[in-house]
Each structure stands twice: as structure tokens, then as C-alpha cells.
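Note on ligand handling. Small-molecule inputs were canonicalized before submission; formal charges were left as drawn, and no protonation-state enumeration was performed. Where a ligand contained multiple stereocentres, the stereochemistry in the source SMILES was retained. For magnesium ion, this procedure yielded the string shown in the input block below.
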Amino acid sequence: MCKIIAIANQKGGVGKTTTAINLGIGLVNKGNRVLLVDLDPQGNATQGLGFDADALEITISTILRKMIGKDYAIMKKYGILSHEEGIDLMPANIELSVIETELISTFFGREKMLKTYLDMIRDEYDYIIIDCMPSLNLITINALVAADEVIIPLHAQYYSVKGLEQLLQTISSVKANGLNGSLVISGILYTCVNDRTTSFRDIQQILKLGYGGDVKIYESYIPRSVKAEEAPSYGRSIYAYDASGRVSSAYNMFTEEFLLTEKGW
Ligand SMILES: Nc1ncnc2c1ncn2[C@@H]1O[C@H](COP(=O)(O)OP(=O)(O)OP(=O)(O)O)[C@@H](O)[C@H]1O
Ligand SMILES: [Mg+2]
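Structure output:
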């Protein structure tokens, strides 16, 4: 059975895309069929897997426009790209920013367009990972409505914790308003961690005290490393770019922890 995971945090630059790519390929490396859906007009997941986002004719925007127009006659692999490391990708580019306006003016089911699409193709995959944009807009709501679980990457800094409240509230509203009653928060993943500083340990403490009872905080965390920054410009995962590095083993450990605690909190 396929599980759909949204990687979300409205704060920018917290490691959503890096996590989406490396959890995705981590799951592929453990024998799963994985689709990564780029749901960000910045197209970072698309570029980070080595594709020229602006040159693509079929993207998630094409798909969403079809769903809005109730045109469901699409082939399962329509527009899906394959990456050499074994992950499939539904790409995105700047055109996605126009789709939000089109969604807003759609009268019925505007929060469910992505879900309608993913429900049509989910039996082809073990996991579908959605890389969300840094905003809590209608497109991100579409991801939360389509998803079974949410992973929240978080920088271990004081100000990151403040934005978390708003995200948790949005997730609660999606559940409470009957849009996706079974949505589960898989957990919070610390990224870009400098584990030599005391502030990381302080933030861990703040989060455990504030949210520890409600939201799982993964034991694994991703250290800061320049290799993680470089990998996307080569269109590769951290496993292919720096196999023996710390970030590679951290994402591998996180993938294993994710699989172990898959049932959510
Ligand atoms: N562990 C890490 N160590 C060092 N740099 C990292 C690490 N993880 C991510 N980065 C870098 O930090 C920047 C932001 O990461 P990323 O693009 O994954 O965040 P994001 O949350 O997807 O951003 P956005 O909100 O813009 O979509 C990128 O340049 C990325 O290469
Ligand atoms: Mg991103």
C-alpha cells in the first residue's frame, strides 16, 4: 500500500527539498518504488535531481490544470521523469505560481485537486513524497489534504520554533474541517545541525518541553555540511555525491528510523 508523505514547513530554507530528495532516494535504496512530487514553483527538487525545470513542458501545473478541468484521462506515467538513482519525479517550475490563482477561483473541491491526481497513480508506488513550498497557501493545503503523513524539517534555532505553531494549527484545521481527518504528523526532523553548539541542545529542550507530548521528534538529525549544499548542483543525492560523509549516513539513519516508526505518533 502506498503512503503519501508531505515534507512541509512554511519557513524557507529549512531543508525540505534536501530531505525530500534524500529520504526519497533513501527509500529507493531500501527497495521501494518512490515518486517525488515537486510542489514548489521554485522547482528546486526538479533542479536538484538534474532537470532543467524551465524547459519542461509537462509539470505538476499541467496535471493540476487537468484536474481543475475534470480531465481525468491521463496515463499513469504521464509527465513523470526517471532519475538515474531510481526515483521518479513529477516536476515543477514557475508556472505553478499561476495555478494557485486558478485554484482560488475554482468553486468545488479546490483543496482536493492534488489528492484526486495522486489517488489515480498511487498504486504504482510504495511512497509518494511531496516537496512543499515555503508557504501555507492553497497549494500547500492540497499537499496536506493528499498526504497520509507530514514530516516537518526544522532548523535548530530559536526562531524556527516560533513558526511551528502556525504550521501545527494549519494541520489541525485540515483535520478538523473534514479535509483529511486521518492526517498524521510523522515527526520533526532537525536539519543543518551544528551539534557542537549548545543552542542545538537548548532548542531540543524547548521543543521537547513544548511539543514533546504531541509531536514526535526524530532521534536522527542531519548535521550541517557543505557537501549537502553541493550535491544538488550535480543533480545527485547525498548518497551518490558523498557516500561516506556524515550527511549521507545521517539521511540513511533517518530513512531507517522513518521506516521503523512508520505508523506515526
Ligand atoms: N545538512 C545541510 N548542510 C548544509 N547545507 C544544507 C543542508 N541541508 C540543506 N542545506 C542547504 O540549505 C539550503 C536550503 O535547503 P533546502 O533547499 O533543502 O530547504 P527548503 O526548506 O527546501 O527551502 P525552500 O523553503 O526555499 O523550499 C540549500 O542551499 C541546501 O543545499
Ligand atoms: Mg525547497
